[in-house]
Design brief:
The complex is a heterodimer of chains A (293) and B (291). With 293 residues, chain A is mainly α. Chain A is 75% helix and 1% strand. The longest helix of chain A has 36 residues. Helices cover 73% and strands 0% of the residues of chain B. Chain B has 15 helices and no strands. Classes of the chains: A mainly alpha (293), B mainly alpha (291).
């Protein structure tokens, strides 16, 4: 009996530091955020005004919010598609090499290890219409040279390209791990049967990579929906709100306009969207059993 | 039709014959690597060029003459030395704190049995599904209430424990055989001693991967530090960098300094990455979580 009590006590004592931190800084804020979203509050005054669901109603009828949602959607779609396709293609190429794998892996992963802010600063310079290297190379190739971050039509594509550039190495690494998990026997058997490379890819590689692809799809969608750093550094949501994304919209309303209640509502809506994807991903991971290990 | 298809596929087959394949692959990969490395090279090149020459067009690969004046300016005229220290300090302390709290928590969750254990584990796990921005405002309010705005506490304490680290270590601890623990018990070790002398040494791979992961994650963090530590003396490098445009304007003459500052901000992690590459990648593939 005494032993059981001692074990319980030890257990809880060991958990205590973590439980305290997690409860105070995640558990409580999680609930408080919803509570705040039902109020109007500037973050400073003692009183909060209860407004029920009017923040949510305002959100749904705000054009600027829908613009941000649209921008976020476009960003997510383009970046996810780009990251995964290029990640896969590069992984397929690198996977066949015997020499230089480490070199390519290092080079492609370098942008991933660098902070988004640093990468964003690099690309702000690179996108400079007159002196930046992007337009320099475009001129060399006799292609048109847009104004990039100063042009409402090109700012978002610019951010999209930079984001794909940053994360493609991550997708490559994950796909490499997935590719290496495919038993060589399948390839050998297929080659014995005289199958060509495209056939092998379509009927062996791609289906066996499905869990990896699904995983990367979820990770990419969830991450892209929360984009903020590069938008803040590169365009502050402009020009003319062409790059304003949901988290930036949230930041503006919460910390610039001091509409903490409204911003909390935005946060919850975004959370709801992401939560669906997170849940799907979690469920699938547990079912598939941590296949990457 | 059928002969057409056969013709196409056999041509493709010829094209993809081994010799050509290797050449094609290598060229594409080199091209891809080029595309990925050029912005870095340009940044370093610009950071090493004298201010008058920084705007040479077309861009020059190797500046003439090479000068480190921009780095000196970044650290002295602008407070990047201070920002660097802040980042280093905060990232290190958080890493140590998370290791400490996660080892204890994971130990309890993996090796001890007590009522409510599984429920607590699920609750902790669920915090992993909560994105940063949902807890942002209330967490910010807490920081203000306890007077931690613009202090190291605000940057460190909220991250002293994280579900991800607990989860990772718990999974790893589960793989350590009971016999090791039993042997230690027989030798008279209490829980803490067993932990220190037996379990931790056996967990070095997981601990080192986690160390790198947490350190890098905190070093690269932006939104939270932007909100709670924006006073100049408290800024971390990421915030300092982002503020460069707004606060100091961006005169042409400052480009090299900005580039030097960016190199300073990114270099520690890049170096860490190059040295600990395998652990880095190991950590990523083990967990598949972006940072």
């Amino acid at each position: 009996m005494k032993r059981r009590h001692e074990e319980t006590l030890s257990g809880y004592l060991f958990l205590l530091p973590s439980l305290i931190i997690l409860t105070i800084f995640i558990g409580y804020p999680m609930l408080n955020s919803f509570y705040l979203s039902l109020h109007k509050w500037n973050g400073l005054s003692e009183t909060k005004l209860f407004v029920g669901l009017s923040n949510y109603i305002r959100l749904l009828s705000d054009n600027e919010f829908w613009n941000a949602a649209k921008n976020t959607g476009v960003f997510t779609f383009a970046v996810t598609f780009g990251q995964i396709s290029f990640g896969l293609i590069i992984a397929l190429m690198v996977n066949r090499k015997l020499r230089g794998v480490t070199f390519y892996r290092t080079v492609f992963f370098l942008p991933v290890a660098t902070s988004t802010v640093a990468v964003a600063v690099m690309w702000v310079m690179a996108y400079n219409p007159t002196i930046g290297i992007v337009n320099y190379f475009l001129r060399l190739a006799r292609l048109p040279t847009p104004q990039w971050l100063q042009d409402p039509n090109w700012a978002m594509p610019g951010i999209i390209i930079m984001s794909i550039w940053k994360w493609v190495g991550y997708h490559m690494v994950i796909y490499l791990a997935g590719l290496q998990g495919i038993p060589k026997i399948y390839y050998e058997a297929a080659e014995l049967d005289g199958a060509n490379k495209w056939y092998i890819f379509r009927n062996i590689t791609w289906p066996l990579l499905a869990p990896t692809t699904f995983f990367l799809l979820m990770i990419s969608i969830i991450g892209s929906f929360q984009v903020f750093d590069q938008v803040y550094v590169m365009t502050r949501g402009g020009p003319i709100k062409s790059t304003e994304v949901i988290v930036y919209y949230l930041y503006q309303h919460g910390f610039r306009y001091l509409e903490m209640g409204y911003a909390s509502a935005v946060a919850y809506v975004l959370f709801a969207i992401i939560f669906i994807f997170t849940l799907v991903q979690f469920r699938y991971r547990r079912k598939a059993g941590f296949y990457l290990e | 039709m059928k002969t057409d298809k056969k013709f196409i596929s056999s041509s493709l087959h010829w094209l993809l014959k081994d010799g050509y394949t290797k050449l094609l692959l290598h060229s594409l990969l080199i091209f891809g690597s080029f595309f990925l490395i050029v912005p870095f090279i340009w940044m370093i090149s610009m950071s090493l060029s004298p201010i008058e020459k920084a705007f040479v067009y077309p861009p020059q690969l190797i500046p003439n003459p090479i000068t480190i004046i921009s780095y000196i300016d970044a650290m002295s005229l602008y407070p990047f030395g201070l920002y660097l220290f802040n980042s280093l300090f905060v990232s290190s302390i958080v890493t140590v704190a998370q290791l400490f709290t996660s080892v204890l928590a994971a130990n309890a969750l993996a090796r001890l049995r007590f009522p409510g254990r599984n429920l607590i584990f699920l609750l902790i796990l669920s915090t992993m599904m909560i994105p940063e921005h949902v807890t942002l405002i209330p967490a910010f309010q807490i920081i203000i209430k306890v007077g931690w705005l613009n202090t190291y506490y605000a940057l460190i304490i909220p991250f002293a424990s994280r579900a991800f680290s607990i989860f990772l270590l718990r999974q790893f601890f589960l793989t350590i055989p009971r016999e090791l623990e039993d042997a230690a018990r027989i030798d008279g070790c209490g829980r803490l001693r067993t932990l220190w002398h037996v379990i931790l040494p056996a967990s070095i791979p997981a601990l080192s991967a986690l160390t790198i992961f947490v350190f890098v994650d905190r070093w690269n963090a932006f939104l939270w530090p932007l909100i709670v530590a924006d006073e100049e003396r408290m800024r971390v490098v990421q915030v300092g960098l982002s503020r460069f445009f707004g606060q100091y304007g961006l005169l042409g003459s400052q480009w090299p300094i900005l580039m030097a500052a960016t190199v300073i901000s990114a270099m520690p992690i890049v170096i860490l990455f190059i040295i600990f590459q395998r652990r880095f990648i190991q950590g990523i593939t083990l967990t598949g979580l972006k940072y």
